[in-house]
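thread from #wetlab-drylab

HS: before we spend reagent money on co-crystallization trials with alpha-L-arabinofuranose, can we at least see a predicted complex? here's what I'd submit
DV: go for it
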Amino acid sequence: MKAKISIQNNRTVGTIDRRIYGSFIEHLGRAVYNGIYEPGHETADDMGFRSDVLELTRQLQVPVVRYPGGNFVSGYNWEDGIGDRTKRPKKLDLAWLSVETNQVGIDEFQEWAKRAGTDVMMAVNLGTRGPDEARELIEYCNGTTDTYYANLRRQNGFEAPFGIKLWCLGNEMDGSWQICHKTAEEYGRTATETAKVLKWVDPSIELVACGSSDHHMPTFGEWERTVLEHTYDYVDYLSLHGYYGNYAKNTADFLARAEDMDRFIKETVGICDEIKAKKNGDKEIHLSFDEWNVWYRTKDEEKTAERWLTAPHLLEEHYNFEDALLVGCMLMTLQNNCDRVKIACLAQLVNVIAPIMTENGGPAWKQTIFYPYLYASLFGNGTTLRAEVESEGYRSKEGWDIPYLYTSVIHNEARQELVVYAVNRSLDEDMELDLAAEGFEGYRLAEHVELYADDLEAANSKEGEVVSPVEREVDHTAPIQLKKHSWNMLIFRK
Ligand code: AHR
């Protein structure tokens, strides 16, 4: 099969904000405890953080990590996780029906983030709590005044403010599963009042309001409209969450989920612009896709798991090769919408639906999805170009036309590189790829990294990697070959 990508160097989508390669750590299962933090582990540093996990996180060059939830945040009292650790209360976590020891809180997490070379994206509790606790938290984190909460931080050993610049106004407040779920009206009002006090304490921050927890929520659309009617003047971003799964064991349909993500983004952009026009505003609301991934095997697991355990094995999705293909496609969707999506968080980072896994007292290892995430973060920087694709395709279950070739093309001017990500979604045919690149004369293929497994269900484990990338030999005399169901990164250099 043949396919072609056409680009022109003056036909651009926008500049990629590196924060689209963000991730997420929630107090859930073994993400924090025995994930990033395991004091007795042989690689534990002076604060009990696992150095092997820190090292993998640094490898990924994660720009920002959302914390501390997720559903967890809607029942969280941030004061439980600061100061003297021997005095911290153990509490019930009603989101995941677990016990939270509070041995890690914002004091520790902001330090972990520094060691990981990443920024914190902080979520505040708008479930059981509201503006009052949020304003106290931001004073604790960012305050520079001689006042109670800023001084409390100093007493706890942190003279310098944490300087957290990105704040989420609650989490998935549209979902009935959320602790103290709200209607759009209720949430819109609380989010507005919380936004006001947060920005009064620290005007340099940016705020994310909750959009829909899923494209297919019955309230999608109306939720966004109502929330933005209230919050438009006070917030900078609207969130989207999306998880996809191969429920029907149909790989072709599964790989078409990137199209659903694309539509979700574009429809949300439409609503943001509708409210902007209605309010005669001059501010563009950007998007924060702050939870996305493949997740289905372990959905609702907490409902049947043993209750009230500390750091239980929850939501430990074992990713296979086809999951990595979809994650690769979803990263391209984010890149192709970089004019409006400025933040995105692969949910999550360690153990819980994550690219990095650990064994308690044992090694850390990379799941299949680690690789498309790694190569997007490291090489997907610069300007996204509008790519015209000519490719055969298929029909998805929704009746959408899905081209076999899925791609994003990024021009990294500083490095004089043209980076092409490409997934061949055909399950049985290799593809011969032609690139027509106007304005890029003299660029030649320099690297071809391929992720391929014959078995779509092949998976990595702590015993070893079955799915890992290979550098293909570059042959300028032959056409570029994309294997059937493969992920590829092609770098053209001058
Ligand atoms: O990432 C796991 C959970 O998924 C989060 O806690 C919640 O926000 C979403 O439903």
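DV: The pocket of alpha-L-arabinofuranose is lined by residues 26, 69-71, 171-172, 213, 291, 347-348 (CB under 6 Å).
HS: ok that's useful, forwarding to the group
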